[in-house]
Amino acid sequence: MTATVPRALRGRSPVRLGPVGRRRLLRTVVALAVAVVPACIALVVVFDELLRDAGRPDLTQGLTSGVVYVLAMVSASVVGAGLVLHRPRHPVGWLFLGLGTLQAVGPALTGYAAYGAIARPGSLPLATMAGLFADSVFVLWFVSIALVFHLTPDGRALSPRWAWAARATVGAGLLSVALVFLTPSHAEPPLEGLDNPLAAGGAVADVLDIARSVAVILTGAGLVVAAVSLLVRFRRARGTARQQLLWLAPAAVLIPVLVAASFVASYLRSQAVLDVVAGLFVVLLPIATALAITQYHLFDVDRILSRALTYALLTAVLAIVYVVVVVAVGAAAGGSQLSAVVATLAAVSVAGAARRRLQDAVDRRFNRRRFDAVRMVRHFVRAPEPGVSVEDVLRQAAGDPSLRVAYWVDGRREWVSGDGRPAAELGADDVVLAGHDRTIARVGAGPEVPPGLLRAVVTEARPELDNAGLRAAVALQLVEVRESRARIVSAADASRREIERNLHDGAQQHLVALAVKLGLARRLADGDTAALLDELRTDVQETLTQLRELAHGIYPPLLREHGLGEALRTAAARAVRPTTVDVATARRFAPGAEAAVYFCCLEAMQNAGKHAGDGASVTVHVGETDAGVEFEVSDDGAGFDPAVAGESHGFVNMRDRLGSLGGRLTVDSGPGRGTVVRGTLPV
């Protein structure tokens, strides 16, 4: 025989869920597990009513006597749900979720068995089996609690030997539950009259009964061993890990004692004592874990719990508002629909403010870091400080100096930084802030910043991020204008260099050759012809000199080959006024930066030659600072009043040239006190 694959399934790959699908499946499973608790409580109430109707009120359980159990199952489910949603791979979350489910299922199955097997035998299917399982489910509580002790806080046992102890506890617990279905029932009230039809008889029954008792005792011993493992872990822990286990250590001491006390109470058939001690040991661990989470961030799920608590309180507040308004308006307006409409409007109107206040109150108690961060950002939004950017505040609030902010420029369809520069690629964990019709900004931080904290501060900083985004769009335009100006200046300099090279390699070489030929011709001539040739040769040499000076003014080869020092000293040698040059750096800068400094100094020297007056001298200084290169051209001449003379075309050219490269130019002058031209240029 050979196996065949159905045609419809051929070629199909197994269905694999993506991250979103797995997240939805996880939430669905958690929601179902949590929903088991109220469903089972409702079943207990239903079966109590059925038992009273059947004339057996003695079999009812009642909720008032099981308040501690209800608290235990609710606390275990809440802690488990929060941990599973935040860290689904951590086994302790699933153990708490299972513990809450087992604690809820037990009473529901007890009511089912009491009605279907004792009050009305045969009225419900498998009622006896349900009663047997319900009577033994406490062993599975032991197993769950023992595993929580073994696997807290990192999800691993202390060592392989401790791991084997955990496996032995699980095996003993499962064996004891299995043997319940093969041995005569020893159920506690209200199921003490339960009769197991599958129980073996004779000596076999005795052996299985002893085996079951041994398995239960071994499970209890396993719980004690697990508690010891947590105490050993607590003794070895240091710092935060020790504080996290601080709340669980007392539980590890008390729970085995309470379990032993519950066995004694059960043996003595003291139901009141059994209810108290059993209730305490099932509720102690979830409460201790919750305290460790809220106080010392055990499992790092305090944010989820705080958010859940906020919405739970918000729901209660809105419900109270709704009920109060319905009652008040209903009393005034009668039984019309007006009361419901007014109550709905009232609840909606207070929802936003109530949520913020409740979240603040919960964060102040359970998530102090988030509370302080949000308060810092909120204070800045209300009263921005001069010289402090929203990026600085976000970095301080999140405690991450590497936090980065980018703004979306919708018209350009690109992300830019606050100064208009292109931003880095979008990170997978970046928080994107969007309005109802547009994207505003995105904020990324390091892994040490919790995503919830980052989202909270970004949401709180929305008004300032919106304003900063508008400024970034303007900065982007300024950057583009500056780059455009730089390209124009660079093109002009390139054209200057090309003209200088063409003059040097073309017209200048022809004039040199012409002068040489005229000299040779002069040797062969005499009389008037010789005199004319001498005159022509002199004219050619003067033209060659003028051409060289013109070429130097366009783009001096000295600047290209030897830098600012040689070029400025050569220019000073040809200056009209006595000029001293002091270049305090031998560093070569970018060609565009050197050309900008050279031509600005040259323009200032020429202005001094024209307007400083006779007897004036000029000093040129070029230096280097941390910010870049700086220069100063000063003279002791006549000076001028800038308010009267205005700004000449030369100054405008200098500003444009420096501005295209991010530099600045200042002019300080006054009648009778000379002129100082200063420029700075980042390099």
TrEMBL record:
Histidine kinase domain: residues covered: 603-683
Keyword NADP included in the entry's annotation: no
Keywords attached to this entry: ATP-binding, Kinase, Membrane, Nucleotide-binding, Phosphoprotein, Transferase, Transmembrane, Transmembrane helix, Two-component regulatory system
EC number: 2.7.13.3
Transmembrane segments: 25-47, 67-85, 92-115, 127-152, 164-182, 214-233, 245-265, 277-299, 311-332
UniProt keyword Lyase present: no
Protein name (record): histidine kinase
Taxonomic lineage from the root: Bacteria, Bacillati, Actinomycetota, Actinomycetes, Jiangellales
